Amino acid sequence: MPVDFKKSQAPLNTVTRDTVKLSEKTGNVYEMVNIIAKRANQISLDLKDELSKKLQEFASYTDNLEEVFENREQIEISRYYERLPKPVSIAAEEYAEDKLYFRREDSEAGSTSKAEEE
Question: What is the pTM of this model?
Fold first, then answer.
């Protein structure tokens, strides 16, 4: 299920977060970071797929110097995606707002977490 990144309230610049408070849900700072990292990877892949689909509409298989420099729609689409919050910021915001579902396997089989979108 794709997420609408336009509606994300994630900050565009760096924000200092209280890792002790955020890690209370998992009880482990490293597990929290792992959950956020996995979700950030999912978001990054979604953004990349979405961007490549939009840019594929402009793909031309014959190279022409005028088209390379004058394709303003393609440039605007790329700029839009550059202005979006970074995937790690979006994932950290989702985690802080309890919008992420994660689960643990039994500790006997090894402790692993999986971050998934709600």
Answer: 0.72
